[in-house]
Amino acid sequence: MRLIIAEKPSLARAIAEALPGRSSKRDGYIDAGDTRVTWCIGHLLEQAPPDDYDERFKRWSLDHLPIIPEQWKLKPRSQARGQLKTIREQLKLADEVVHAGDPDREGQLLVQEVLEHMRWRGPVKRLLISDMNRPAVSRALNKLDDNQRWQPLYEAALARQRADWLYGMNLTRAWTLTGRQAGHDGVLSVGRVQTPLLGLVVRRDEEIEAFEPRAFFPLWIEAGVAAGSFKAWWHAPSSPWLQRLADKGTPLPLDDKGRLLDSRPAERLARHLATLTTLGDGHVESVEASDKSQPAPLPYSLSALQVDAARRFRLPAQKVLDTCQALYERHQLITYPRSDCRYLPREHHAGMANLMISACVGDRELERYSGGADFSLRSRAFNDSKVSAHHALAPTGREPDYARLSRDEANLYRMITRNVLAQFYPAYRYREVKVELRFAKEPFRASGRSVIDEGWKVLFQRTAEAGETADKKASDKNAAADDKTPPPLPALTEGEPACVLDCGIEEKETRPPEPFNDASLIQAMMNIARYVEDEAVRRTLRDVDGLGTEATRAGMLETLINRGYLVREGQAMRSTRIGRALIHALPPAVSRPERTAQWEQRLSLIHEQGDPAAPFLSELIVDLRALLADSSASRLSTALASVGGATPAPRKGGGKGGSRRKATPYKKRASGSSSGSSSGKTASGSTVGSNKDGASRKSASTRSPRKRATGSRRKTDS
């Protein structure tokens, strides 16, 4: 008997439907002749808590840290025991196992850890499914691979799981007890992804608050030429007049971006420009014209879709992930959604015409654009060298029933379909013209653009139609606001005479950076190298996928909100007082992105080049000891007393992700109470440990009551 183990019940059903013959549902599996299909329900196993290794670890103590298992243990999740029993019974009858986890690192771990836990030693094949439509599943069943080929991916996933446990469990225990010494009686969760992500927001918020605006004064003219007029701007950094003043000892009134910080030079020049009204008082010094083209945007990865959906429809990243999962599992309208890839296999190109025509049925715009597509075009998106375990999000070709789709499902489906459809339109082509003029020997610059061929852009320039939803209209309005394309310039030739028709000075202020929101945070996690200061490290990190993974980024934002470290204020994501205090008190290396991005680089080497995992974990333990020694209750106490921050909204109990504690004020602690004896249960039943503190480890002094941030969920993770 062949046993197929799917990652989840919906995938198991799709596999069973694609098998030959009739199938029948049993308790925990599907019988399909000589094949049986069973399933996991997410992770059936979890890392054992510290007290499973040693009973004394139930009490959180700085003296226990770091906790490092000699032999790693997994234990069944409480809600998974029944399904584990079913899998064990089916394994006893099986001659061969087919691993049908999702085509990513976590999917490889999820099923394989069950096989390892049950000591299965028979043959294992690998089934990779990214499209749950029956024809696609049938094709995948005919292309089974040897699971041994995917062993390095499993080793990388296992190393990540163990490293996250070591890092999160030890540092969370340590800083929770350090926090108690400092007067905070809640859990202070630390993780290799969540903490650098929190650090990004804290540093951005504080940069905004510390920002001091400065006025600057751009000078413009309305230049007249034979063929018409256009606006041009004084280019003060290359001004001969200002340079002469600088040569005489007058400091240039410019900032590092060339903006004029003193209005007086602009006012003096403007008075003179107002007299240059005769054609020939100035001239066109240079004209640079070039024809350019821009290829269609690539199909979406999950993160790229989350960024665009947040901008267009104000959807939180987790909502985008959940909606895509429904489009994939329930409606079977899109391919595997948790993909980090924006490319498609070349072999998919041949069948795209029929697939896309079917996928566009039911939507007037998509139908019209599919009718205008040239399916013989092969864009840069069809590139096998860029595709690994999974490819970009794409429609499956099943005709959508919009009556069964929610508004969010329909919007995201249209976005995914449109980006794939754009691959079959020509490039957007335009002529760009850059001009420099001289008036009173001073340089003025202008640029313009004229469209040669709209190409793929016609798909993104929708006109309002009857019955169009408010979200669609908002999408168009946002797209128009983002379009800063300069208007075309009149016909110009070098040396031709010009005059000043009008001129003026604008008073503007420098602006602080924008606060992070869902879109910009996901984008920051995707492009984490730009937030690294060390240039050598930045160059290395450009090849790393980023902070977190496609599957975890959205959940991490919600985790930080649930723990009271971040709060949404409108569309902005703001750090709270406790979130800021934690970042200020932690060693800088814990709250910056370098470490976690380098982790991902090491994990990639384990997966892609077969590097052993043991050195990675050994180096982590050395690093962990140094971090534990650097904890400081006095640093945290100072931070709690000095930082500002947003106030979290009151929490409601229950809901997705488990119960949440209500906000409570800080409690006044009695002198002499032992921080080392404090304990708190984690979600897995373990007790949160403590951290070695350079200050006193035995007692906490009496402190005045302080308001505390919203209570955190008692769970340690990444």
TrEMBL record:
<dbReference type="GO" id="GO:0003917">
    <property type="term" value="F:DNA topoisomerase type I (single strand cut, ATP-independent) activity"/>
</dbReference>
<feature type="region of interest" description="Disordered">
    <location>
        <begin position="639"/>
        <end position="718"/>
    </location>
</feature>
<dbReference type="InterPro" id="IPR023405">
    <property type="entry name" value="Topo_IA_core_domain"/>
</dbReference>
<feature type="compositionally biased region" description="Low complexity">
    <location>
        <begin position="671"/>
        <end position="690"/>
    </location>
</feature>
<feature type="compositionally biased region" description="Low complexity">
    <location>
        <begin position="639"/>
        <end position="651"/>
    </location>
</feature>
<keyword id="KW-0238">DNA-binding</keyword>
<feature type="domain" description="Toprim">
    <location>
        <begin position="1"/>
        <end position="133"/>
    </location>
</feature>
<keyword id="KW-0460">Magnesium</keyword>
<dbReference type="InterPro" id="IPR013825">
    <property type="entry name" value="Topo_IA_cen_sub2"/>
</dbReference>
<dbReference type="InterPro" id="IPR005738">
    <property type="entry name" value="TopoIII"/>
</dbReference>
<dbReference type="Pfam" id="PF01131">
    <property type="entry name" value="Topoisom_bac"/>
</dbReference>
<feature type="compositionally biased region" description="Basic residues">
    <location>
        <begin position="658"/>
        <end position="670"/>
    </location>
</feature>
<keyword id="KW-0799">Topoisomerase</keyword>
<dbReference type="InterPro" id="IPR003602">
    <property type="entry name" value="Topo_IA_DNA-bd_dom"/>
</dbReference>
<feature type="domain" description="Topo IA-type catalytic">
    <location>
        <begin position="150"/>
        <end position="628"/>
    </location>
</feature>
<feature type="region of interest" description="Disordered">
    <location>
        <begin position="467"/>
        <end position="493"/>
    </location>
</feature>
<dbReference type="InterPro" id="IPR013826">
    <property type="entry name" value="Topo_IA_cen_sub3"/>
</dbReference>
<dbReference type="Pfam" id="PF01751">
    <property type="entry name" value="Toprim"/>
</dbReference>
<dbReference type="InterPro" id="IPR023406">
    <property type="entry name" value="Topo_IA_AS"/>
</dbReference>
<feature type="compositionally biased region" description="Basic residues">
    <location>
        <begin position="704"/>
        <end position="718"/>
    </location>
</feature>
<feature type="compositionally biased region" description="Basic and acidic residues">
    <location>
        <begin position="469"/>
        <end position="485"/>
    </location>
</feature>
<dbReference type="InterPro" id="IPR013824">
    <property type="entry name" value="Topo_IA_cen_sub1"/>
</dbReference>
<dbReference type="InterPro" id="IPR013497">
    <property type="entry name" value="Topo_IA_cen"/>
</dbReference>
<keyword id="KW-0479">Metal-binding</keyword>
<dbReference type="InterPro" id="IPR006171">
    <property type="entry name" value="TOPRIM_dom"/>
</dbReference>
<keyword id="KW-0413">Isomerase</keyword>
<comment type="similarity">
    <text>Belongs to the type IA topoisomerase family.</text>
</comment>
<dbReference type="InterPro" id="IPR000380">
    <property type="entry name" value="Topo_IA"/>
</dbReference>
<protein>
    <recommendedName>
        <fullName>DNA topoisomerase</fullName>
        <ecNumber>5.6.2.1</ecNumber>
    </recommendedName>
</protein>
<dbReference type="InterPro" id="IPR003601">
    <property type="entry name" value="Topo_IA_2"/>
</dbReference>
<dbReference type="InterPro" id="IPR034144">
    <property type="entry name" value="TOPRIM_TopoIII"/>
</dbReference>
